[in-house]
Design brief:
Blueprint (H helix, E strand, L loop, with lengths): L16 E9 L2 E5 L12 E4 L2 E4 L2 E2 L3 E5 L2 H6 L10 E5 L19 E7 L3 E5 L13 E4 L2 E4 L2 E3 L2 E5 L2 H6 L10 E6 L1 H11 L5
Antiparallel strand pairs: 1-2, 1-7, 2-6, 3-4, 3-7, 5-6, 8-9, 8-14, 9-13, 10-11, 10-14, 12-13
């Protein structure tokens, strides 16, 4: 879910930094980080486990965002505790390489890990499985991944050691929750075709 901003930023799903939760005080979340603070300004967006949040305060090695009740309800951010690692990414700039796929930072649902890396299997809500296709893209906790198998109740992905090491996926176990964002191109295609298909 995007917090209240006047723009919609885009991400790539390529994690820039593995930060950690410093504290959660009501709606205010403080995150330990360094890389994503380079050139930071008030109101900048940063994806936290795939959830676009707005920077409202920062120091040399931390930054803070206010998280709405809606965002807590639709993501796994409320399950986090101080010390938990989080995937961080700043919005893509026009001069950057698009290494993953176009990600909005708008979490569609929370999924559950059935099998951890390297043969990652995730269970997801049934109403989203139609957007998952073999060799298609999906965002898991802000990480752009390629689907190996599209299943009736979710999907699988093959995770390489590098991805395990530089993201939260390496520490996730069966039963852990993850934020999911399906490929927005699939949702747009469905919307455009809806008026041309039989009811």
């Amino acid at each position: 879910m995007t917090e209240s901003t006047e723009r919609t930023d885009m991400f790539t799903g390529i994690v820039e930094e593995l930060g950690s939760i410093a504290s959660i005080d009501g709606a205010r979340v403080r995150i330990n980080a360094t890389t994503v603070l380079e050139g930071v300004q008030m109101g900048d967006s940063t994806a936290v486990n795939g959830c676009c949040l707005t920077v409202v305060a920062w120091g040399d090695d931390w930054w803070e965002a206010d998280v709405s009740d809606e965002t807590f309800a639709r993501t796994n951010l409320g399950d986090l505790s101080p010390g938990d690692p989080v995937n961080l990414e700043r919005p893509v700039r026009l001069m950057d390489r698009l290494g993953g796929h176009v990600v909005q930072g708008h979490v569609d649902a929370v999924g559950t890990i059935v099998s951890p890396v390297p043969d990652l299997r995730i269970e997801m809500p049934a109403d989203l499985t139609r957007y998952i296709v073999e060799k298609g893209s999906v965002t898991v906790d802000g990480i752009s991944l390629t689907v190996v198998d599209a299943l009736d109740d979710g999907f699988t992905c093959a995770i390489i050691p590098h991805t395990s090491a530089v993201t939260t996926l390496g520490s996730k176990q069966a039963g852990d929750t993850v934020n999911l964002e399906v490929d927005m191109m699939a949702k747009y295609a469905e919307k455009l075709l809806a008026g041309h298909l039989p009811a």
